[in-house]
Design a protein that fits this description.
Largest sheet: 5 strands, parallel
CATH class of the domain at 10-190: Alpha Beta
Radius of gyration: 36 Å
Strand order of the largest sheet: 2-3-4-1-5
Shape: elongated
Helix content: 55-70%
CATH superfamily of the domain at 10-190: P-loop containing nucleotide triphosphate hydrolases
Strand content: under 5%
CATH topology of the domain at 10-190: Rossmann fold
Structural class: mainly alpha
């Protein structure tokens, strides 16, 4: 379900600098040329003034378009982080709702790149925007850092990122440093000078101290702003010299000073600070409800005026938060309260935040008190999307599995992101709780999915999904994902069935992203079936959907890669090359799918050296080291270089293992049949090819059927006289399954002997072919290499060709050259084969163009 946001999250508010802040001329001067940089990193410890210097810059430069995001540990996952990134840009991007609709429906972490590409494209049309990300040190997640690096690398020059952090960013910034597009402000620059320390004490904190005392305090704090403030506050409450015997400013001294400050306050003030320390942000209304009072506004103002590490987030609305240094100490004090009091306050805080529309803060309060059942109910009601699911990692799985629907969604989410160990862990707990079995079919399905057994899809399973209390969007996405898994297991009928279910839901929703998912999955299935005409029509539909919805423009690249596969199967190499040109400028797409198409194109153009290099690149991808995908690569490698013999031997071992687990696909079987053929195991290869042909005929998988038929032709072609009739029947069947969709690719990986047999098919069985099949056969006869040596005809063939060019019949050619009619036919077949033509007119034209005859 899409979360409804009732208030702007305080994480997206630019803090208001305190009144009479120290104007740090040198640092502000640096920030004035912020737009000359792509990335600005302000690095310093807690309380070093990072937030203050940026917030004061924002205040003094209202004309600069700035968005502000304050992070915490909950944002350390790719969905939560980008939720806030998108939300922060809402004021500058009118198309943001369209991007959000895309965001709320993704289940794969890899799909986040699509969101970012869409965002980059839209941002490139805007004016300069600066994105300030405070507390970036919380971001340690690999996926978040990769996506941030991607945004920085590919966004246009009008986008500027400022990171406020205690640690170095966990992504590569060397390119920005080398190119002069990185501005760094470090700990040393953030430290107060003696003069700035004096201004801070005298004018900001309004403490009337002698210059030499301020100097000593500043020296002790070593220019650290937070430490200086702690020392000053402690001194203001204790007139004695609080600096006595304090040689080093460390965490023990900070704790001591904080304690001294708190105990110097009135009891009512102490109580307020400790109890409100659990709040990520607060205002008068929130504090009134939490504490059951009606006069907290006066207290907030009084404490703020005492400079007690309270940061004003929104001056107009009176929203504040505590600085991390002080809040950690206060929360330690909170932990000393009775457990019952702590729980009551946390639960009350959860209710307050929920009423104000802040789902996340509500969940965080419940999790802190381990109120897992209540947290689950909130997540189910408000957060059935990856943003809400990210909180589930804080809840014990034994609690999660009590809600079957939530457990199923979580398993599916982990499976989509290839996090199989987490899936297994959840399923083990599910089945342990049910004494080894479970009444829900969906869990049986998930178990089979994880253990890679044959998946059983039945009406009960579908009914369970339909009856789930989840949104239609989530159901549709589950169906789309299921279709992919079923298709990969070559259960085409079941895959199409669940896609039909998804389509019915989409018609109700009119959701373009769900429609894209359905069409994309259909395209993959139709391409494998060899229904290339239908597949091309579906891709054209996809392009139309993208054109109607600009926020889907990031998916254009995926469509170009997909439709290239059709062009390659038809040997429309110019179209394929042109389609790939649409991809080349987009580094987001330069992954395995793009490179695979490039490799196929190189192979089909006859450039085996480049094809080999691309295969080597593809083998660096994890997917092509995986037993599920390796055969799709090795079926080309087997043709380009003998050095792949070892890998083919490894595949043969893997094949037997997959066979035992019943995990073989027909693509694996065809490759193994080729390996058997190379090793001389002819009968075993033929038997396997017959199995493939039987399965692919039954399921109308034309491309794989054609490949199996042609490989069998190659094997039997070694004894043409013995197998002539069967060979012609096999070729006749291959042509039948190829002609309608113009499937040519399988014929390019076959022996030249196929050409001779195709000519024989034309000579002897032409009457069996319909008009379109005959036309396709002529196209096949024109395939092959066009090396000059192929055009060299024997002297007798040249004689036959010259007489043929006069329009003479076979009988007249024989009479003129004193050879039999059958010999004339043999010579003509050889001429056609060498010239790669299929009739007399084409032969004469080709021979004239090549200068073979004049």
């Amino acid at each position: 379900m899409k979360r409804e946001v009732h208030i702007i999250s305080t994480k997206l508010m630019t803090p208001t600098p305190r009144k009479n802040y120290v104007r740090r001329e040198k640092l502000l001067k640096k920030l004035e040329i912020l737009h000359d940089y792509k990335l600005v990193v302000v690095k310093g410890s807690a309380g070093s003034g990072k937030t203050t210097i940026l917030s004061s810059f924002v205040k003094e430069n209202p004309e600069v378009a700035i968005v502000w995001i304050t992070l915490d540990k909950e944002n350390n996952n790719v969905f939560s982080f980008w939720y806030y990134m998108l939300e922060s840009l809402r004021v500058y991007i009118k198309e943001i709702e369209e991007i959000f609709s895309l965001f709320h429906m993704i289940m794969h972490k890899d799909d986040m790149k699509r969101i970012i590409v869409a965002l980059i494209n839209i941002l490139s049309t805007k004016d300069d925007i600066t994105i300030v990300i405070d507390d970036f040190h919380y971001i340690t997640d690999v996926d978040v850092n990769k996506t941030m690096e991607y945004l920085l690398k590919h966004s246009s020059e009008n986008i500027h990122i400022v990171l406020l952090t205690r640690e170095e960013p966990n992504f590569y910034v060397g390119d920005f440093l080398i190119s002069g597009r990185l501005l760094e402000i470090g700990e040393e620059e953030l430290r107060f000078s003696a003069d700035e320390g004096f201004q801070f004490i005298r004018y900001t904190l309004k403490m009337d101290l002698k210059h030499e005392v301020v100097h000593d305090m500043n020296m002790l704090a070593e220019g650290w702003i937070g430490g200086l403030q702690l020392i000053a506050l402690a001194r203001s409450y204790h007139k004695n010299d609080c600096m006595q015997n304090m040689k080093v400013l460390n965490k023990y001294m900070i704790a001591y000073l904080s304690k001294e400050i708190l105990e110097a306050l009135e009891e009512e003030e102490q109580d307020f600070l400790v109890k409100t320390s659990i709040l990520s942000y607060f205002n008068e209304e929130i504090c009134d409800e939490l504490l059951g009072k009606k006069d907290t506004k006066e207290m907030i103002i009084r404490l703020f005026q005492k400079h007690l590490f309270m940061i004003n987030i929104d001056e107009d609305r009176g929203i504040y938060r505590y600085h991390a240094i002080f809040q950690q100490f206060l929360q330690h004090c909170f932990g000393q309260l009775e457990i019952g009091v702590q729980k009551e306050l946390r639960l009350r805080a959860a209710e307050v935040y929920e009423r104000s529309g802040d789902f996340e803060e509500c969940i965080k309060q419940l999790l802190e008190m381990q109120c897992y059942e209540a947290a689950l109910r909130k997540i189910e009601n408000h957060g059935q999307n990856p943003q809400g699911w990210s909180y589930l990692r804080h809840i014990p799985l034994t609690c999660i599995v009590q809600n079957k629907e939530m457990a199923f969604q979580l398993i599916f989410y982990h499976y989509c992101n290839m996090e199989f160990e987490q899936c297994t862990e959840i399923l083990n707990i599910v089945y342990e709780g049910e004494s080894g079995h479970h009444p829900w079919k969906v869990f049986e399905f998930c178990k089979a999915l994880i253990e890679e057994e044959n998946l059983q899809l039945d009406v009960l399973f579908i009914n369970e999904i339909e009856d789930m209390d989840i949104s239609d969007v989530t159901k549709a996405i589950i169906y789309v994902e299921l279709s992919f898994f079923l298709w990969f297991q070559e259960r085409i009928k079941d895959a199409l069935y669940v896609l039909d279910k998804a389509s019915m839901l989409e018609k109700r929703m009119k959701n373009p992203y769900v429609k894209m998912g359905i069409l994309s999955s259909l395209c993959q299935i139709k391409e494998e079936l060899g229904d290339l005409k239908e597949c091309e029509r579906l891709y054209n539909q996809l392009f139309e959907v993208i054109e109607q919805h600009s926020f889907l423009s990031a998916l254009t690249v995926t469509c170009h890669i997909g439709i290239t596969g059709i062009y390659l199967k038809r040997l429309q190499l110019e179209k394929a090359e042109k389609s790939l040109q649409h991809v080349q400028g987009d580094e987001a797409a330069l992954g395995k799918a793009y490179l695979y198409n490039v490799m196929e194109l190189q192979f089909l153009k006859g450039d085996k050296r480049q094809a080999k290099e691309t295969i080597q690149k593809l083998q660096t991808f994890d997917a092509y080291q995986n037993e599920l995908f390796i055969s799709s690569l090795l079926k080309y490698a087997i043709h380009v270089d003998e050095e792949y013999v070892q890998q083919l031997d490894q595949f043969a071992v893997m094949y037997q293992q997959k066979k035992e687990k019943k995990k073989l696909r027909n693509e694996d079987k065809i490759l193994y049949a080729q390996i058997l053929l190379q090793k001389g195991n002819i009968q075993e290869s033929l038997q396997l090819l017959d199995e493939i042909a039987e399965f692919t005929r039954k399921h109308k998988m034309k491309v794989l059927l054609i490949e199996a038929l042609l490989l069998k032709v190659l094997i039997l072609g070694n004894d043409m006289q013995k197998h002539k009739r069967e060979l012609l029947n096999l070729l006749r069947e291959a042509v039948h399954y190829s002609y309608e969709n113009h499937i040519l690719l399988p014929y390019t990986r076959t022996d030249k002997q196929i050409q001779t047999l195709l000519l024989l098919l034309k000579e002897e069985r032409l009457q069996d072919l319909n008009e379109r099949e005959r036309k396709f056969l002529n196209t096949l006869l024109q395939l092959g290499n066009h090396d000059k040596e192929n055009f060299i005809l024997s002297n007798r063939e040249l004689e036959v060709l010259k007489v043929l060019a006069t329009g003479a019949s076979n009988k007249k050619i024989g009479e003129q050259l004193c050879i039999s009619i059958s010999t004339v036919k043999t010579h003509i077949i050889n001429i056609y084969s060498k010239l790669h033509v299929s009739n007399r007119v084409e032969a004469i034209k080709k021979a004239t163009e090549e200068g073979i005859i004049k």
